[in-house]
Design brief:
By secondary structure, this protein is mainly β. The strands form two sheets. Strands 2, 4, 5, 6, 9, 10 and 11 form a seven-stranded mixed sheet that branches. Strands 1-3-8-7 form a four-stranded antiparallel sheet, with no helix packed on it. It starts with a strand and ends with a strand. 0% of the residues lie in helices and 47% in strands.
């Protein structure tokens, strides 16, 4: 069982930056593939970024590639999402998720993930 707690959300102006954190409980964090998803009001949850167990491989949605960066610190049981050049359309609740399996190229598939955090709100003002 893994518990995930996101933090770092807030209100930011367009063009600004935020860094989200997701702290995981348990002693086997390094065995989990991690992902970030987001859900805007009235829209389906969408994939944002994913990272392999070691952190050596990352994958991004086209909408955020070049602006967002996912990273992890396995010693701290934490995954991060550095968001830069934020746009109004980035406004959403952001969720981190953990998968206890190899990604197999399925980073964007929410069905691959076993555990989810409660989410943190990111609001970008235009």
């Amino acid at each position: 069982q893994v518990q995930l707690v996101e933090s770092g959300g807030g209100l930011v102006q367009a063009g600004g930056s935020l860094r989200l954190s997701c702290a995981a409980s348990g002693r086997t964090f390094s065995s989990y593939v991690m992902g970030w998803f987001r859900q805007a009001p009235g829209k389906e949850r969408e994939f944002v970024a994913g990272i392999s167990r070691s952190g050596g491989y990352t994958y991004y949605a086209d909408s955020v590639r070049g602006r967002f960066a996912i990273s992890r610190d396995n010693a701290k049981n934490t995954v991060y999402l550095q968001m830069s050049s934020l746009k109004f359309e980035d406004t959403a609740v952001y969720y981190c998720a953990a998968a206890n399996r190899e990604s197999g190229g399925r980073f964007p598939d929410p069905g691959m993930y076993d555990y989810w955090g409660q989410g943190t709100q990111v609001t970008v003002s235009s």
